[in-house]
Amino acid sequence: MLENAPIIIGLTGANGAGKDTVAGMLSRALHQQRRLNCVMAFADPLYEEVAKAFLIKIEQLKERRTKEQPSEALNLNMCIDPWFVQSIEKSCNVDVMSEVPRSPRQILQWWGTQYRRAQDPLYWVKRFEHRVRQHQEAGIQHIVVPDPATLVLMRHAGQLWALVDITLRMLKPRELYRAQGFPEHYQIEEIPDPALLFIDGKQAPGNPLDLPRIALSTTAQVRMVGNSVPPPVAAALVRANFRHEALLYAA
């Protein structure tokens, strides 16, 4: 149970947005108010476990400039945890005997997901809760967590709970177009090649439908429906603004 647990202050943002800097500022401000606090990243146990298994320093894993660069120190043969090596060999079909250097990001991903979460989907949540409990026993009042928003935690009945699935999904492009009022036959998967459609900033002569077409990514399809005007709304505006013309032509 986590009765009277520390207040957890979560910070989120893109990589390089300054989460660690803000976390440090918050920690110093709380210290000036004589409030016991600490900065604790959700991924701290991950870095600690990998560093221990490969006998390297945590700083070697956290260095942003080399996060994607393969390192001889992260060769799977250098790992002293045989269970990790076996799990990667089975789940990722990797030849563990080949002396291939791996990048910190690759090893961290394997360790966090294919290894630990395969053992227990809530492994890292439990590690986080254990850390919170330790800080609570030490009298810590505030914990600043500068992590991306990949985890939703909630406190209920004195315990920390992880929200792992909100049972919702993103709407697919065709569903979005239907919601906007576009007909089923409306083409959303491809468009005339823009490189051939415009010449010197002007539309090329001829029928655009005769030009070679290029496929649209899902991201592009969603962006375009987001920028669209619903056809029923456009039709309603035309009817409202040109009613007198319609009456004139009817006469």
Give an account of the 3D structure.
The protein has 251 residues and is α/β, with parallel strands linked by helices. The chain folds into two domains: 167 residues, no CATH class; 78 residues, no CATH class. 44% of the residues lie in helices and 13% in strands. The chain has a three-stranded parallel beta sheet, covered by helices on one side. Strands 4-5 form a two-stranded antiparallel sheet. The chain starts with 6 loop residues before the first strand and ends with a helix.
Relevant terms:
251 residues, alpha/beta, 44% helix
Map the helices and strands.
Blueprint: E1 7-11, H1 19-32, E2 37-39, H2 44-54, H3 58-62, H4 82-91, H5 104-119, H6 123-137, E3 142-146, E4 152-156, E5 159-163, H7 173-180, E6 190-192, H8 194-197, E7 198-199, E8 202-203, E9 213-215, H9 218-226, H10 231-241, H11 243-250
Helix pairs in contact: 4-5, 7-9
The span between the termini is 81 Å
| Widest beta sheet: strand line-up | 1-3-2
Total of helices: 11
Shape descriptor: extended
Total number of distinct structural domains: 2
Structural class assignment: alpha/beta
Major beta-sheet overview: 3 strands, parallel
Strand content: 5-15%
Low-pLDDT runs of 5+ residues are none
Provide a quick synopsis of the model.
It contains 11 helices and 9 strands.
